[in-house]
Design brief:
Elements (H helix, E strand, L loop, with lengths): L1 H9 L9 E20 L5 E21 L11 H13 L12 H22 L4 H33 L1
Antiparallel strand pairs: 1-2
Helix pairs in contact: 1-3, 2-4
């Protein structure tokens, strides 16, 4: 997902607003030509090909859908702000910074590291990907603080009722 987001930002130069990452699996199809013989007439035999699903061997696929709200981004601070806004506008398909959950934070660290690595392969040496990640972290902190303040207001109002 991080690689794909980097490609969308730095190669396609779009903000990736409202894109959806869909994971799915498919069983491997196995053809067994020797599995069944049927006698059709006195001297004729036909080999039947049996198609069956092997549920023990699964392959995982990722699809990226829904590009209708994506907009072009400029390769400057304005474009980064647009990409950050789009990142937080999306349903939380990708990991986000600032979680209280240790596992979520570890996933964010892996995601952001992979995003930076993929971005470097695409752009070479550029400060834009690092700035994007920093802006995501700052926006995440701002949102967490805003949520905390709203919760305090709600609980303060409940005490007065």
């Amino acid at each position: 997902m991080a690689d794909t987001l980097a490609v969308l930002h730095w190669e396609a130069k779009i903000d990736a607003e409202d894109v959806e990452f869909v994971l799915g699996s498919r069983s491997e199809v196995v053809y067994n030509e020797a599995s069944s013989l049927h006698k059709l007439q006195k001297s004729d035999w036909q080999m039947e090909t049996i198609k069956k699903q092997n549920s023990e061997r699964q392959s995982v696929h990722m699809w990226v859908l829904d590009f209708n709200r994506c907009q072009k981004i400029s390769m400057d601070e304005k474009g980064l702000k647009q990409a950050v806004r789009a990142f937080y506008m999306n349903d939380p398909y990708h990991p986000r910074p600032g979680s209280d959950n240790t596992m979520d934070e570890a996933v964010w660290e892996r995601f952001s590291s992979r995003y930076l690595t993929a971005s470097k392969r695409i752009l070479g040496e550029s400060e834009l990907p690092g700035l994007f990640v920093e802006m995501l972290i700052l926006e995440g902190e701002r949102r967490a603080k805003e949520k905390e303040e709203a919760q305090k207001r709600v609980s303060g109002a409940a005490l007065h009722d």
